[in-house]
Every structure is written in structure tokens, then in C-alpha cells.
């Protein structure tokens, strides 16, 4: 795949489209604009992260199927796009993210799991003939059970179907006989009849066969891609593609929250109140530590300072707030000389005058706080005892605490924060928490609606 800076768009005639359901065996021979290279990848990333959130929240298979269908329609198969454009976007976005997620074992594991899940449910949404065509494309060495053999096991197959609440098998149903170890999930779920080391797999169950093959192929491909990336591509493209590829795996896909959204400015006199009611744990911890120690290291100042900017604290109030705390330890003169510039810089009033944006959850989670630092994500960086104490201080009940800690142990840190939000506010957060300023904004909306409900004249 060659990436060019040309503004020319690829027409449908520039590529021979063979299948509407690509198996991603070879990279496409296409010229792709650099902008599309990144935008296509971000759209697919929205799909994969949506699936990841759904799985983390324990959605049932039928709910995941609907979720995959909705995500695919929203981000890949736009109504105004032609079929060939959709297929090209599908293929290009997959191979771009393959570059992004081939680079470490942890990234490969996540991408492999999400792409396999996406493939599984897309396959299930395909029609019968399309499924058979995909099965043939994989060239799986399985033959359909003959009529004579079918008759010999028909009673057993019927018993399996009944146990699953399915219609009784018919003589014209297609079954494949495969080694039982190749369909472990079907065997574990007692969804197939096993005889002499072989499982009899119905046509509507072949998704398990195809997914196993797809996962195996993609796993090997990711290893090979990593070798090519490290030995050839990353250095050659260090000034062009490499920065994009390295940034995509930690990309935040929502609003930047550089300005307060959905509410007005927060004044200095309201800061203690809203910190207690609406700050997420990461920011509440920094806020409390600042009040306690009258100082934060650079990482903490950046994380909390940009957050406060995003919730609507004006520059003058921000300077007053930081000075009032730091002066108790370093004195007002040292604050003016060494720290005030950084605060004005965050607000775009110094240096290059860049409008800096608050940190997303992903950026905070992947940070690496050192000794004496207080920034980062408490769900990732706190010990279990310290996290329990912090959650208890926020008012999280013991029952909700158990659910939160379970997500932390499984490294679902954003979902742990989401469950904390839901426990404290008594309200669901289906979109999940992806940004500290989103947590604050959603919290304020809920609290304000409760005030209006209890006092309609307010």
C-alpha cells in the first residue's frame, strides 16, 4: 500500500473489487491520501473500541450483534458511499490499524481479539450464500456429511438441536465433520454432537470454523507485519507515517474539551463544591493533594491545570487558585517567577499561544508517574488498598466497590471509572467515561437536573 500526498481521490474504477467481505490476506494495491490514511483508521478504531466497551460491559451475543451492525453503519458503511468505496475503506482501515497494533504483544492481543469479534458478527449478519462463499474462500478441508452418514447420526443431531431449542434437523440440512479440537467453543457449549474425535457442525454453526481460521491467519500476519515495521518501515517513514501510526493506538476519539461544554464558567468560589461533587477520582486526588501539600510536580500541574481550564475556570481565577496554594510552600515571588508562566501558557497566552486541550483518559492511563508524582489514573496506578480507600471517600458502596475492583483487576480502567460514576450519581452512563471533562460535564448535567426536579421554580 503506497501512501501519497496527492489530493486526487480514488475512483471506484481504480481497484478491482472481488469480494464484498474481504479476508485481508494481502494489502491493497492503492494510492491513499495521507488524510484518508488516518481518518479511515480512526473510523475503524471507533468500531473496535465500541465493541471493546460492549464486551467489557457484559453485553449478550444478540446485543453485540446489534452493536456491531450499528457501529459498522455509522463509521464504515455510510449511506452516501458506494459499495466499492465502502469495501476500499474497510480494507484500507484494517491494514492501517494492523500497522498500528502490530508493534507490541499487548497491542496485538487487543487488535486480534477485537478484529476477530468484528469478523464473527459480520459473518453472522451475512446471507446463507455469502457465508458458503466465504467458507470456500478459506479453502477449509472439510467435506459435507454424506446422506448415508447423516442417517446414521440423525437421531443424535436431533437431540442436540432440541437441547438448544432449535428446530429438528432435516435430511437436506448441511453438516460438516471436523476434528473436535478445531471448534472448542462449540464443544464447550455442548452445541455439537461429537463422535470418534469429530464434531458434526451445522451450516449455521460454521462461523466457529471460519473465525478460528481467520484468527489464526491474522495472528501470524501481525507477527510478520511487526517484523517488517521494525526492520524497514518505521525508520524509512519516521518523518511521515511513523508519528501517525504511533499516535493512533492511544488516540482519543471524542470532543477535546478545550472549552467548557454544556455549562458556563466555574468561579473560584465554587471550586471546592464542584470538586467534591463532580471531579473524577484522578482529578479529585490531584486537587486534594494540592490542598494538602501546596505543591504538585509538572505532570500533576498539567493534568489538573488543563482539566480546570476545560471545566471553565477563567485564567485570572486559575492564577489566583494556584498562587494561593503554592505560595504557602514556595512563596508568592517564586510562584510568579517559576510557575505563573506555565499556567498562562496552558491557556494559550504565552509561547506559541497554542490552545492546549485537557488530557483524555487514554493519555492519563498510559502516563508513567514516578516517585512523588500524583498524576496518572488511580484505577491503574493505585494499590488496591489505596484505591478502595479513595473510592470509599467518594461514597462508593461496598457492592459497587466489588464491581469496580473486578474491572480494575481485568484492566478495564475506564469501565471502572464509569461504574464509579454510575454508583455515585445513581444514573447509567451507557457511553462510558472516556475523558475526565466528560465525567465532570455529565455529572453537572445530572446534578442540575435533580435540582430542577426538586425545585421547578429554580
Descriptive overview:
The protein has 458 residues and is mainly alpha-helical. The chain has three domains: 2-125 and 211-248, no CATH class; 139-204, no CATH class; 268-454, no CATH class. It is built from 21 helices and five strands. The strands form two sheets. Strands 3-5-4 form a three-stranded antiparallel beta sheet, with helices on one face. The protein has a two-stranded parallel ribbon with strand order 1-2. A hairpin with a 2-residue loop joins β4 and β5 (198-202). α1 packs antiparallel against α2. The protein is elongated and about 95 Å long. The model is unreliable at 2-19 (pLDDT under 50).
Q: Can you write the helix and strand succession as a string?
A: EEHHHHHHEHEEHHHHHHHHHHHHHH
Q: How many strand elements?
A: 5
> What is the beta-strand fraction?
under 5%
Helical residues, percent: 55-70%
As a whole number of angstroms, the C-alpha radius of gyration is: 27 Å
Tally of distinct domains: 3
Could you say which overall geometry the principal axes of the C-alpha atoms support?
elongated
Number of helices: 21
Class of secondary structure makeup = mainly alpha
The largest beta-sheet arranges its strands as: 3-5-4
